[in-house]
Amino acid sequence: MKPEAIDHLLKPFNSFVRNESSAGVFLLICSVAALILSNSPWQDEFHHFWEHEFTIGIAGYAISNTLHHWINDGLMAMFFFVVGLELKREIMAGELSSPRNAILPLTAAVGGMLFPALIFALFNYDKPSSSGWGIPMATDIAFALGILSLLGNRVPISVKIFLTALAIADDLGAVLVIAIFYTSDISLLNLATGAVFMITLLTANYMGVRNTVFYGIVGIGGLWLAFLMSGVHATIAGVLAALAIPARTKIDEVGFSTRLKNYVKEFENIPPNDVTLLEPEQLHIIDKISKLTKAASTPLQRLEHALHPIVLFVVMPIFALANAGISLKGISFSDAITPVSLGVFFGLLVGKFVGVVGTSWLAIKMGWAQLPSDMSFKILYGVGMLAGIGFTMSLFITNLAFNSPDNIVEAKIGVLSASIIAGTIGYFLLKKTLPASGNSR
User: What is the DSSP letter of 19?
Assistant: First the structure.
């Protein structure tokens, strides 16, 4: 197939987007940009930009919120939707599908949530800021994998799988924490309405409805909107909607292969017309191949494949721009040593490491799990340190946990400083302990 001129122009961009580790680099760039703009001569304009109000309404019903609010409640619902898709896939056919394989990352994830929360709670015991205990609980998978990718093919595939499974289980824990502990006054009527839409999605799945547009309309126009108005955080709707997406094909691999070969033979038997346009019969066969291909894939995997780059290169960077900015004007050293900032800092940097490594060690010593053959405890130390990169989810929970601008700034200082140090230490630990060459297929 001869490449067109536009293919050559887009090749660098497509290669960048297809490389998942590039998302961590892009997220870092946006975070640095937010910090620079927050401390530039345009800082007032930058902060006021996110406070512009937008209204969604129909037939006399309207919801008005700031752009910052729409990003955190609306755009991030897509992030949580993809998390839900990944979680369902992992449970059905990934690392979390086998109890033996799932025990180690699940145990590490539980420890990696409990210890950071405990450390924060100790620093903020009996203080109004104690509500921020959920901030240091989650790992930012994009950043963590981005740093891991800097080590190239020295990283064993088992390490990447372990870190990914750990982060996904970690995200599930964070979702449950948000749903249970970080909700406002609950409207039972709107929650019941959301339940009706959820039942509708599950029923459609059971009946074999595979049209992703249907799930989008019911999931966004019904489930998400009902949760937005219910008091339960709207991003939870993203996870619930993902769990209702069909994860089965309409045709098995053998049937797909047989019918595809027949269609290809039919296509080859049609005499070419020696012009750029196709014959009607050829178009008809291509249409049948397209439908066959769609029937041989699952809606869950199609959606995950389509939305993953959007989340990595659009949703998360926009979230970083809107949330990572900290104005250093008026901030002193004392702001970095408050109970909130220290609780977040040590929760991520120490709590994550102790929780991930400690509970993994316990599970292995008790005989519940075992380390992969190409992963040593020294490598686990580096992975445990990378788990201390909180960022996206930590910043997200910060906005839910606190109303006080001072507490929010203090938490952001803890998140950013701990994430930078954890990422740096984790990188050098792994660089020192990983073999000189490896296989990262």
Answer: -
DSSP class per residue in 230-246: HSS-THHHHHHHHHTS-
Neighbours of 208 (CB within 10 A): 9
pLDDT under 70 in the chain at which residues?
1-21, 57-61, 95-96, 184-185, 330, 436-441
The whole-angstrom separation of Cα 58 and Cα 402 is: 32
Residue 324 near residue 390, CB atoms below 8 Å: no
The model's pLDDT over 119-142, given as tens digits with 9 standing for 90+, comes to 999 999 989 899 999 999 888 877
Q: Which helix (H) or strand (E) holds 37?
A: helix 21-37
Structure tokens at 416: 């950013």
- Domain residue spans of the chain: 20-182+233-248+298-433, 253-295
Instruction: With beta carbons less than 8 A apart as the criterion, state whether 347 and 116 touch.
Output: yes
Cα 93 to Cα 91: distance, rounded to the nearest angstrom: 6
For the beta carbon of residue 184, count every other beta carbon within 10 angstroms: 10
pTM: 0.74
Read off the tokens for 327.
């104005």
State how far Cα 37 lies from the chain centre. Answer: 25
User: Which residues lie below 8 Å from residue 250, measured CB to CB, with a gap of 6+?
Assistant: 210, 295, 296
pLDDT digits (tens, 9 = 90+) for 351-368: 999 999 999 999 999 888
What distance in Å separates the CA atoms of residue 367 and residue 361, rounded to the nearest whole number?
10
Q: Look at residue 17 in the predicted model and tell me its pLDDT.
A: 43
Q: CATH says 20-182+233-248+298-433 is which class?
A: mainly alpha
**Please, which residues have CB within 8 angstroms of residue 184's CB and are 6 or more apart in sequence?**
231
Angle between helices 99-123 and 352-365 (to 10 degrees): 140
SS3 62: strand
Contact 431, 148 (CB under 8 A): no
Cβ-count burial 31-62 (b if 16+ within 10 Å, e if not): bebbbebbbeeebeebeeebeeeeeeeeeeee
| Cβ neighbour number for residue 11 with a 10 Å cutoff | 11
Task: Show the DSSP H helices in 347-391 as ranges.
Answer: 352-365, 377-386
Q: Which candidate, 232, 247, 265, places its Cα nearest to that of 85?
A: 247
